[in-house]
Amino acid sequence: xxxxxxxxxxxxxxxxxxxxxxxxxxxxxxxxxxxxxxxxxxxxxxxxxxxxxxxxxxxxxxxxxxxxxxxxxxxxxxxxxxxxxxxxxxxxxxxxxxxxxxxxxxxxxxxxxxxxxxxxxxxxxxxxxxxxxxxxxxxxxxxxxxxxxxxxxxxxxxxxxxxxxxxxxxxxxxxxxxxxxxxxxxxxxxxxxxxxxxxxxxxxxxxxxxxxxxxxxxxxxxxxxxxxxxxxxxxxxxxxxxxxxxxxxxxxxxxxxxxxxxxxxxxxxxxxxxxxxxxxxxxxxxxxxxxxxxxxxxxxxxxxxxxxxxxxxxxxxxxxxxxx
Length: 324
Hints:
Layout (H helix, E strand, L loop, with lengths): L2 E3 L6 E3 L1 E4 L8 H16 L4 E3 L8 H10 L8 E6 L14 H14 L5 E8 L6 H13 L3 E8 L2 H14 L4 E4 L14 H8 L2 E4 L31 H5 L2 H17 L3 H10 L4 E6 L4 H7 L9 H11 L10
Parallel strand pairs: 3-4, 3-10, 4-5, 5-6, 6-7, 7-8, 8-9, 9-10
Antiparallel strand pairs: 1-2
Helix pairs in contact: 1-2, 1-10, 4-5, 8-11
């Protein structure tokens, strides 16, 4: 496993991270597999584990905290997020000082931790002044409850405003962002990557395999595989990605991966890591075998001719994308 600095900062995280969004905790057997997956990640040198208070209503945080408690604190970097409703009250969501402090305390209790390494604002809160949000996050760093903070799905303008407030008010720095980035969703290349590079902000990307599209399991003209995410995902994100155009790209990418002797998923992850602006790719894995496959992307350098072939297939053009 290779490690990269979090932007210009001193924290080093594994190029491949393990996320908890799709971790299945329903039942003893499912929890056993999830436990095996986290332990396999640690065995493979993964040191970055991403979570959020909203994942499974807090159950994902509690599970991850229970597993990581068996390991030395210096062995891992753990993150969580705040924004989405965690109750029915008027202040049970958003990025107000009240909600952030209350949810951070709950997260630390759930995860059995004294501090979080990374803490993200999941979405932008238009009902709270950005000055209030940046101030409380800076205060939580000063209090030792978090080490680094950042944002997830924020627009370039929102990120720029946050950086400006921090500079003007002499607050602790915004050190990391967590946007979506993969072969079929490259919007951060247009502005956000440059903003991060100029300010030393690390980028830890989620959905690097486009909800499973870039694993190669979904093929044009073939039925959706039984038990795959497209058969149970409530919001149908993967189903919306199964367009003829995207599936045509998959068909053209598969021979490139085969020529390199790697799965399409590994090719897709290595393609993201080609960018020096990227700190880590946050992968999901429902079982250890998927995790073991994903780690092969760390350190895999794609030849220039291969990158050229991929670029011709993807045929990317900048566009306006709704964020969040």
